[in-house]
Specification:
Layout: E1 3-13, E2 16-21, E3 32-33, E4 36-38, H1 45-57, E5 60-74, E6 77-90, E7 100-104, H2 106-111, H3 122-128
Parallel strand pairs: 1-6
Antiparallel strand pairs: 1-2, 1-4, 2-3, 2-7, 5-6
């Protein structure tokens, strides 16, 4: 089985991060994920994220530093999921291909039912949020 490279966006606004709920017709229906998608041949991770977020959320983003990487085996194949910190440049996220998109704080992230590949990224994402350690800025 081949490994598929998938990129995900960690878009932070204030102390909240954007979470996307998979559509009912998709693999892993109605589970939450960080939005993104498959890297196509010849694309960089940043190019794939910019394309996917334009298609899925109707937004333009700038891609920043890597947040984390997970290799996950599903029954249908293995993915290498790489998450990047992204900033909104233009647009308001809309659920064009997802059932729902929502801004959530660290407590909200922990309460959602995440896709298995996204779950290991939660610790790094929460730690990167402003005020995550309980200290003041």
């Amino acid at each position: 089985m081949s490994r598929v490279r998938v990129v995900a966006a960690v878009i932070v606004r204030g102390g909240e991060v954007l979470a996307a709920r998979r559509g009912p017709q998709q693999r892993q229906p109605l589970l939450w994920e960080f939005p993104g998608g498959k890297v196509e041949p010849g694309e960089t991770d940043a190019e794939a994220l910019q394309r996917e977020l334009g298609e899925e959320l109707a937004v333009e983003v700038s891609v920043g530093s890597r947040v984390g990487e997970v290799i996950h085996r599903y029954s249908w194949g293995t993915i290498c999921l790489v998450a990047y910190r992204c900033a909104l440049v233009r647009g308001t996220p809309m659920a064009l291909e997802h059932a729902e998109v929502r801004w959530v704080d660290s407590a909200g992230l922990a309460s959602l039912e995440w896709a298995p590949a996204d779950r290991p990224l939660l610790g790094s994402v929460v730690a990167s949020l402003p005020g995550a350690t309980g200290g003041s800025r």
